[in-house]
Amino acid sequence: MKKIGLTIVALFLFSSLTGQKKGKPLSLNIEDGTVMEILKAIEARTDYRFYYAESWLSDTSLSKNYENMLVEDILADVFENTELNFYISADNRIILTRNNRIYSDLPDGFLDEQEEKEVAKTTNSSSVPALYGRVKQQSITTAETVRIGKERSGKRQERFVLSGRVLNAETGKPVPDAAVIVKDLRTGVVTTAGGTYEIELSSGLNVVEVSALGTAGALKNVIIYSDGNLDFEVAESVEQLDEVIVQGDAIRTIEDTSTGNTKIGAEASKNIPLVLGERDVLKVATTLPGVTTAGEGAAGFNVRGGKTDQNLILLDNAVLYNPSHFFGFFQAINPFSIKDLNIYKGSIPAEYGGRLSSVFEISSKDASTEKVKGEVSIGPVTGNAVIELPILKDKAGLLLGARGAYSDWVLKALNDEQLQDSQASFYDFIAKYNHRINEDNQVSLTGYSSGDVFSITSDSLFNYNNRLLSLKYNRKLSEKSSGSIIVNNSQYKFNIDFDGSVNSNFEQGFQIDETEIKTQFKYLLNDAHNFDYGISGKLYSVLPGEIRPRGANDIIQSLSIPKEKALEAALFISDNMKISDRLQLDLGVRYSFYSAIGPSEQRIYREDLPKSESTVVATEVYEGNDFFQTYGGPELRASARYLLNDSLSVKASFNNTYQFIHTLTNNTTVSPVDTWKLSDSNIKPQQASQFSLGIYQNLSDYELSLEGFYKKQDNITDFKTGAQLQLNANIETEILQGEGKAYGVELLIRKNKGKLNGWLGYTYSRSLFKLDSEFQEERVNSGEFFPSNFDKPHDFSLVLNYKLTRRFSFSGNFIYQTGRPVTFPVGNYEFDGNEFVLYSDRNQFRIPDYYRLDLSLNIEGNHKVKKFAHSFWSISVYNVLGRNNPYSVFFVSQEGEVKALQSSIFAIPIPSITFNFKF
């Protein structure tokens, strides 16, 4: 039972109406008493009367002993660790206040401090960095009011520090890079990787807003009287995810310094009709300006006039050498496991190197740490499934994804006896473990494996595989700095099994491995300087090719091309500099170092003759781990943004890059049996320099951008006509290296909101190569510039989504591209009694232009919150117009005449229906 013993010891020292302490000394012996009981006891024994709101008082029990103390001293002790202050009036009224104090006269220096405060507000009125976004004009009366600390007696303090975290309201996870803005002072900070922030506020009322991409943000009225802590929770936007991403990108496109960069959320591919109904974020990328493929069903990407091997494709920081299944028809990653895709084709961050044209940075989802989640889809030829399993509540989770194709039935159903024994299938698996050890430490581990098997003829079976493993550890070092360590390994290999009718059976294979370790640090010096720096090292190991007989009676001779090894390392640093509210720079430098490593035998050729077997003058032999050929140099990364107004900006950038690894292929598009070659004494690294200039504007619901670029390339690899690239130990005799240039203009118009949304992209660009030499056999087209295999001047894409209701929507794509260049026979001639075909200059002609229309109907299940699973149907038709788009043109001799024939992938409309559900 609660007890309060109250003894009145003395009644003397009546207070005057001056500044002397008032009241009667009391002795209080308190055992398990609440604050309200103490106040009522004082009222019962004295002339004091209290005025307060009961909700302010804590129910916490107190046990204290006060001997001969004045009432105001007792109250000061009772309220010491609370937000309550009190004021004793001359007529014995005690008024409790929350946070603030009541003054009977102005404190010393009050008027001077108020004047200084107004001056400070004026000078800071335009100091919000553009990075923090545009603050929405909301009434502070609609925001929650939060009180921090309480006002103390004595000299008034005008500035206090508020700290805390920004968290996702649904998952509880920290939100990095969120803007925390003080609207009155127009100043702000950005949260760290752990979601923490620390900001100075003026005493009294402050309107604080938190905003982050993909969230609805948060707004609070913060009344602060001392240093304190406050966490913000931001909810995910209630709009469709693809619209949220577009809106977030619209703000970022105007305000950040990068050029030619795009972010695509995985949900952006949900409503876009694609072949056989399969979601494919990489296919979505090809509908945006500057990213194309050589043709329908072609693997690989040509970015701003670059070759397919010039793109660095990353999955959770590890290189993915072949990102496609089934010759490019499907992406090689389970679409439900992807969080987003960042494409850097203009301003490439200093942390990335090794490729000339672009970086495709694919990030997988973090598994839920709260509840089991999953998504499953069933389509005509594929099935996908992803499940998220909490391992430790609010700390760790495991994502598992699997996908497989059952497309063999399609080939067997075709009325073609030659395809009855054909097969084509693929699979991929992904697993990711994410663990938030504490607020300052996080770790994630991703594993991925994929495989393709296909056989179009009965005697050959092709299979190729990707495998990667990536470990990343993040640590918050301080409020201003953080660091990470990344270790990853990637492998790509292919095999060909040939089973002929005679004793010529063989197995042929290729394999490339790379292992990388990278340390990276971020340091926020102040609002004007944000540094990113680190070091990386990568070890390559390449088995160029081997062939061996399948059985003892096979006549094929075994051959293995010697293994190649190389080391690639880099130091990098960049500084995102805010010069003023309008001008922002991002300056960086990356120093790349590359060395080929023994054991190796390098041929030395005569300089006055073309490279061939007959022009070898010596052979240098290098032992294991000898560094026998080094390349490298500085790579500059510079970009600038100037805000003309809140919705209009101009940007410019410059990059120069090195590439030390090359593909060996005679095909126009990427082939699964393409091999990779490391730079050595006879093959130099490729180099490129790119300039970009663009203007970007937001107009209400629309986003517009117009960007031009010019790219100059050196040591671009190409090959002699009829070159033998497979199993060639002296491949340098077949390789040509020359110049390249690409230039163009990219236009993007995006509608961000409303029932009708989507984008229109148009690119005019040229991609030209020049292979000149003093030797005729190493010269192409008389040493003049000629169109590359993927030069397509006009590329137009229109992607539209129309929401009929919340559950029903229509989507459509229209694609138009200039036909790619080809080399045609232009005549024939006889020599020494034999007839030969005379071909035109390389890539002098073009195949017919390409265009395609796709349509789909999307049906979502009801949107009830309390529902086990949410379903989604997609009914689509690919190539609605049945356009017979040529994939390639080839020539045959029939009855003494050379005739041109064309092959197509899909010459008829292809309907499909896909069902998926999410729980």
Number of helices: 6
Quick check: average pLDDT? Answer: 82
Structural class: mainly beta
Strand content: over 45%
Report the count of strand segments.
58
Distance between the termini: 52 Å
Unreliable residue runs: 1-21, 116-140, 238-248
Question: Could you please describe the fold and organization of this structure?
Answer:
- This protein has 919 residues and is mainly beta.
- It has six helices and 58 strands.
- It has a 22-stranded antiparallel β-barrel. Strands 7-13-12-9-10 form a five-stranded mixed β-sheet, with no helix packed on it.
- A hairpin with a 3-residue loop joins β26 and β27.
- The longest helix has 15 residues, at 241-255.
- The radius of gyration is 35 Å and the shape is elongated.
- Residues 1-21, 116-140 and 238-248 have low confidence and may be disordered.
Keywords, please?
919 residues, mainly beta, disordered N terminus
Topology:
Elements: E1 3-7, E2 26-33, H1 35-45, E3 49-51, E4 62-69, H2 71-78, E5 84-88, E6 93-98, H3 110-123, E7 144-148, E8 159-168, E9 179-182, E10 187-190, E11 196-202, E12 204-211, E13 218-224, E14 228-229, E15 232-234, H4 241-255, E16 261-265, H5 281-285, E17 291-292, E18 302-303, E19 311-315, E20 318-319, E21 324-325, E22 330-331, E23 338-344, E24 358-364, E25 373-378, E26 382-392, E27 396-405, H6 408-413, E28 423-438, E29 441-455, E30 460-476, E31 481-498, E32 506-526, E33 529-549, E34 559-560, E35 564-578, E36 583-597, E37 600-605, E38 616-622, E39 627-645, E40 648-659, E41 661-664, E42 675-678, E43 686-699, E44 702-719, E45 735-751, E46 756-770, E47 786-787, E48 794-803, E49 808-817, E50 821-822, E51 825-831, E52 834-839, E53 845-846, E54 850-860, E55 870-878, E56 886-894, E57 897-904, E58 910-918
Parallel strand pairs: 3-6, 7-13, 8-14, 8-15, 19-24
Antiparallel strand pairs: 1-2, 2-4, 5-6, 8-11, 9-10, 9-12, 12-13, 16-23, 17-18, 19-20, 21-22, 23-24, 25-26, 25-58, 26-27, 27-28, 28-29, 29-30, 30-31, 31-32, 32-33, 33-34, 33-35, 35-36, 36-39, 37-38, 39-40, 40-43, 41-42, 43-44, 44-45, 45-46, 46-47, 46-48, 48-49, 49-54, 50-53, 51-52, 54-55, 55-58, ...
